[in-house]
Amino acid sequence: MGKNNDDYNPDKERPGYGISHSNYAPVHRKSDPGGGYEKQTLPDEAIMREVGKRLSGARSVDATRITVEVSNGDVTINGAVRSEDEREQVEEAVRGTPDVASIENNLTIEPDSGSSSP
């Protein structure tokens, strides 16, 4: 079996190692993103739990003043933060969550009123 006048076909050269092999798709999914299989995505509830974990672990973020809604991977963040830096940290935490399709950041900046002395 060598190259004839036909176009090169690796299946002819090495039977059992080409795309016709039954294990080709499962083994090569990561290297073939357009390989005709569905991308596995997290359900909205799992995305919401993961966002919650990330917000709880984010430095200097008061997650008690924030609510998160998820619909088909689209995340909406509502509530208040103390600063623009905290607002950016919240969005960064959400952006790093797997399977988040989009983010709508409706956070307002409201410094804590209890931290100032009369």
The total of beta strands comes to 3
Q: Kindly, what is the distance between the CA atoms of the first and last residues, rounded to a whole number of angstroms?
A: 90 Å
What number of structural domains do the residues give? 2
* Helical percentage: 25-40%
Radius of gyration: 24 Å
Please give the CATH class of the largest domain: Alpha Beta
Assign the CATH topology of the largest domain. Answer: Histidine-containing Protein, Chain: A
Please identify the structural class as seen in this structure. alpha+beta
The run of helices and strands is HHHEEHE
- Record the strand order, biggest sheet: 1-2-3
What does this structure look like?
This protein is α+β, with helices and mostly antiparallel strands. It folds into 2 domains: 8-40, no CATH class; 44-112, Histidine-containing Protein, Chain: A (2-Layer Sandwich). The longest helix is centred in the middle third of the chain and has 14 residues, at 44-57. A 3-stranded mixed sheet has the order 1-2-3, with helices on one face. It has 4 helices and 3 strands, in the order H-H-H-E-E-H-E. The chain has helices at residues 10-13, 24-28, 44-57, 84-95, and strands spanning 66-71, 74-81, 102-109.
Task: Summarize this structure briefly.
It is built from four helices and three strands; from the N terminus they run αααββαβ. With 118 residues, it is of the alpha+beta class. The model has no long low-confidence stretch (mean pLDDT 77).
Name the descriptors.
alpha+beta, 2 domains, Histidine-containing Protein, Chain: A, 3 strands, 3-stranded mixed β-sheet, 118 residues
